[in-house]
Design goal:
Number of helices: 5
Helix content: 25-40%
Domain YdhG-like: 21-125
Oligomer: single chain
Largest sheet: 7 strands, mixed
CATH class: Alpha Beta
InterPro entries: YdhG-like
Radius of gyration: 14 Å
Organism: Algoriphagus aquimarinus
Strand content: 25-35%
Protein name: DUF1801 domain-containing protein
Length: 138
């Protein structure tokens, strides 16, 4: 897989507090693993609104961030007008915490449900191929 990375992304990760950085890097790892498992040939890691973001040619963008105003949590954001988060809620209502139709929210002191999250990530990375499927193929 060809990964095109904006060099400014690393500086954003370095600015996170130590207690948050490993959590954010873990989300990044899950996104990159999911892209690799899907066999994506090209993938872009960049910044959108100053937040680490990931773009696939036939997918919907994924962003992630931690905000000082909510220091006990961090989140993975999806396009709010897509079917992504509403479908995640139907498939995994009790597994994730949600912020409207735009984000999966994680507490710093909780373990991320990696298997289910990777399914969500893969749905986002292939969104334009799966958006017509029931529950977007979850």
């Amino acid at each position: 897989m060809e990964l095109k990375t904006n060099p400014e992304v690393e500086s954003v990760f370095l600015k996170y507090p130590d207690s948050v950085r490993d959590k954010m890097l873990n989300l990044r790892r899950l996104i990159l693993e999911s892209a690799e498992e899907l066999g994506l040939t090209s993938f872009e890691e960049t910044l959108k609104w100053g937040e680490p973001s990931f773009l696939a040619k036939k997918g919907s963008s994924i962003r992630m961030d931690w905000k000082a105003k909510s220091p006990e949590q961090y989140a993975m954001y999806f396009k709010c007008t897509s079917k992504l988060v509403p479908s995640f809620r139907l498939a995994y209502d009790e597994i994730f915490a949600y912020e409207g139709s735009r984000a999966l929210v994680f507490k710093l002191d909780e373990k991320v449900p990696e298997s289910e999250l990777k399914k969500c990530i893969k749905a986002a990375l292939t969104y334009h191929q799966v958006k017509q499927l029931p529950l977007i193929g979850l």
